[in-house]
Amino acid sequence: MASSSTRSPVSLAERSPQFSGTELAQGLAPPRQFAEASFENYRPDAEYPSQAEAVEILRTFAGSWSAPARGGGLFSRKKKTPDTRPGIYLDGGFGVGKTHLLAALWHAAPGPRKYFGTFIEYTALVGALGYAKTVELLTGSTLLCIDEFELDDPGDTMMMTRLLTELVSTGTRLAATSNTPPNALGEGRFAAADFLREIHALSGNFDTLRIDGTDYRRRTLEGHATTRDEADYAARIEQATAAGETVSDDAFDALIAHLATVHPSRYIGLIEGIDRIGLSHVHSTESQAEALRLVAFIDRVYDAQIPIVASGVPLDEVFGGDMLSGGYRKKYLRSMSRMMALTAAD
Fold first, then answer.
1. Partner of 317 at 20 to 30 A CA spacing, among 190, 203, 251, 280?
2. How far apart are CA 178 and CA 146, in angstroms?
3. Is the dihedral of CA 149, 155, 161, 163 positive or negative?
4. By the 8 A CB rule, do 296 and 50 touch?
5. Which stretches within the chain are classed as H helix?
6. Average pLDDT, the chain
7. Which pLDDT score, from 0 to 100, does residue 2 have?
């Protein structure tokens, strides 16, 4: 092993991670940040009773495991008992603890076969294994948790509708989170009306549980993401490297360009073994494609709780133009909050 005196920063832009379908499936578990998540260590905000109510409803859901009824289809707002539908959908703003609760449910669910992943990871699994083999792999699982449910692509919508409907028919239960109510998925992103039937079919399998509240990260953070001048940035990278950390050092443009060559499901491989991420010469972008790739990357960095050292424009100001008023507004706001937390941890 190299000593700290000879250690040098690595470049994420030089990494090209590859995962087989089997490896993707093996990674379908809560991220390290939520490895110990439970209903007991969730801290509901007393000002928002729906948070404490959500804990009790999910406890009931976890404690009444039974094969879901056939028929119906994934999100009704009718007040029913939690086990009347095979799935539960956690709807609420970012930073209210939905992922913590989803992970707590996963831990509480009977095993041994249960899966936890983001929407992107499940679609990537289908891409790697093929639809039939994915169904074969997931059939018989007790619970499928889908974090950050998205509807950015009509093809993914129809594929996930079909996949989840097949799994529900064999007894698998479902839980999902999103910052967007089920009936608004896809709104402002594509012609959702053209896919209304698919969206309704997907939503019919879920009872919707609304969780109100404010972003817990912003309760302790103010202002903007931390940024450094170039000299301070270089000194911080050198200091962390000398301390024996595995540090990455990339220019913002180089990383953004490289993200376009890596499937988002493989972003976790980019940061494997990294203790601290360095991004220099950060600037705003008006490219929606670049912005969405950055959001997906930051999600994986946040899951892994890797601090970021940055120079240039504060990372929470990278989404330029009218992005914050478009269909992806909630995604960008969530990412801004996470970038503030990650740079504050530096």
1. 190
2. 9
3. negative
4. no
5. 21-26, 49-63, 98-108, 119-129, 131-138, 154-169, 196-203, 230-242, 252-259, 267-270, 288-304, 329-344
6. 83
7. 41
The token pair at 30 is: 């809560």
Query: Phi and psi for 8 in degrees, rounded to 5?
Result: -130, 155
Q: Which parts of 262-321 fold into alpha helices (H)?
A: 267-270, 288-304
pTM beyond 0.85: no
**Partners of residue 43 on adjacent β-strands:** none
| The pLDDT of residue 7 | 76
Determine the 3-state secondary structure of 331 from DSSP: helix
Q: Residue 283: which of 322, 249, 302, 310 has the closest Cα?
A: 310
Q: Are 109 and 62 in contact (CB under 8 A)?
A: yes
pLDDT tens for 119-138 read 888 988 888 889 999 999 99
CB 211 within 8 A of CB 58: no
**What's the half-sphere exposure (Cβ side, CA atoms, 13 Å) at 284?**
11
Q: What is the sign of the dihedral through the CA atoms of 325, 329, 335 and 340? A: positive
Structural domains in the chain, CATH included, are 12-17+218-344 (3.40.50.300), 31-214 (3.40.50.300)
